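Amino acid chain
________________
===
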Amino acid sequence: MKLTDQEKRERRNAYDKKYKDEHKEKAKAYQKVWYEENKEQAKASSRAYYSANKEKVAAASRAWQLANKEKSRAYRKVRYEKNKEHVKATAKAWRLANKEKVAAASKAWYAANKEKVKADWGAWYEANPGKVAEYTVKRRAAKLHRTVSWSNKKLIAQVYKQAKELTIETGEPYHVDHIIPLQGKLVSGLHVETNLQVIPATDNLTKSNKFQP
């Protein structure tokens, strides 16, 4: 009986799989030798395949990660340790180029994990009283050093009151943020009413002490 093209492919794939299963070590050794002798060709071929099949590759990668969570974590950890500086630089460049996307993702994640965030922060505060005290003292000192005599204390108090009221009304934490940080890396602002804004806590935590004009 003549086989169809589909049946031929299935039979060939089954034979290849069986052969690979029976000769795993031999196949690995052969692949390693071939790759070392044809690195540039292999890389070019891999890039071309990825460009033509991005969605397929991404779906296969997600499926493998879900099915192999422990292996995936171990692999990412090893890869990170080997390429720490490159990974940090790439991540930083991406965040700078996608500020709005990062802020939106952070806000969405917080909205979906409010209780977890509260629990984690509470646990961290209890486990790190020394760091909390150090941060509080440092923050107060920064405010004192960046406060000027001509600031309008009543308006400043109103801004903090607004943040508190929004937190109560919405059920989401709001912070008073210094538009130009008191302890910025490039530039430092003043603790004055014109340098204050009320923003969601998630946006403030994402912003940290960076100035975003």
Notes: Residues 11 and 114 are 53 Å apart (CA to CA). Residues 1-37 form one domain. The chain has eleven helices and two strands. The longest strand covers residues 174-178.
